[in-house]
Amino acid sequence: MAFLYLDDSKHHSFGFSLAAFVTCDFDPSEALSTMFEEYGYDPSTFEFKSSAKMKGDDNLQRLRSSLKLFIAKNCKIAVCVVGDDRRLGPASLELLNAALKHPKLSETEHEVFFDEGLFSSVKNAQKSLQGSYAANRCHCHFEQDSRKVRGIQLADIVAHTCATMLLDSMGHITKTIKLDAPGDGVYDGMEVELGFEMWAGIRYSFLSKNKPDLIDDFDIATVCVFPWGLFIDDTVDQKTAALAMGRFAEMYLGCIH
């Protein structure tokens, strides 16, 4: 059994919204509670939000880094992109149906937790689920409180990260950062684009499979994310859809020195 958590990141002014699944082989709630306590936050009241102001808050930034490291070590991820927020719920079910056909998820049943607001109501969510591939493979929990279901907070991080990556591909991100990598003679102190930094940190986590037809060394180091880890809804305009495919459909896992 795997635990799957879904949250979203909306960017109306840029014409898209993005939802992300995070899968874990175990319930991450206890591990996240321990992590919150380590950084001085009360897990009974604290909720990590990627939208929170972090500039100047070193403690919150360190917690964010620890949560990202947890995702990298313990989770697989998948994303869907929509052009109409009303499609976030149905599109996430389409993504779930595709993800469940990946070998990592295909052989067991799963607990799936959807954040609040992805569907107009629990009734409509259950109606959308009826007859789907996921209906027979998952116990789906809709309209969940992300403060109580802490795994959704991991999905929030992934949704925010992937939305930033897509905004970067669209040319809307110009921010650069200095890498903090003590002891690394190549990367420590290097100034890189934010989109690149986010891609480099999450690229190994996508639900993917090796490319079937290898042509060169680049292909050997590249995996296919689509269709198991990516769904693009019909409501997405052609330009954004093409950029999303270019950003997420394949992931290069080779050396980036």
Description:
This protein has 257 residues and is an alpha/beta fold. It has 8 helices and 11 strands. Strand 4 (110-115), helix 4 (122-129) and strand 5 form a beta-alpha-beta unit. Helix 5 crosses helix 6 (194-202). The N and C termini lie far apart (37 Å). The mean pLDDT is 90.
Coarse shape: globular
Mean pLDDT metric: 90
Instruction: Report on the biggest sheet.
Output: 6 strands, mixed
Proportion of residues in helical segments: 25-40%
**Order of strands across the widest beta sheet?**
5-4-1-2-3-10
Number of helices: 8
Rg over CA atoms, rounded to whole Å, is 18 Å
What is the beta-strand fraction? 15-25%
Number of strands: 11
SSE class: alpha/beta
Straight-line distance between termini: 37 Å
Short description:
The protein is α/β, with parallel strands linked by helices. The protein contains eight helices and eleven strands. The protein has helices at 29-38, 58-74, 88-99, 122-129, 151-169, 194-202, 217-220, 238-248, and strands at 2-11, 16-24, 75-82, 110-115, 138-144, 176-178, 191-193, 209-210, 222-224, 230-232, 250-252.
List keywords for this structure.
257 residues, alpha/beta, 6-stranded mixed sheet
Topology:
Elements lengths: L1 E10 L4 E9 L4 H10 L19 H17 E8 L5 H12 L10 E6 L6 H8 L8 E7 L6 H19 L6 E3 L12 E3 H9 L6 E2 L6 H4 L1 E3 L5 E3 L5 H11 L1 E3 L5
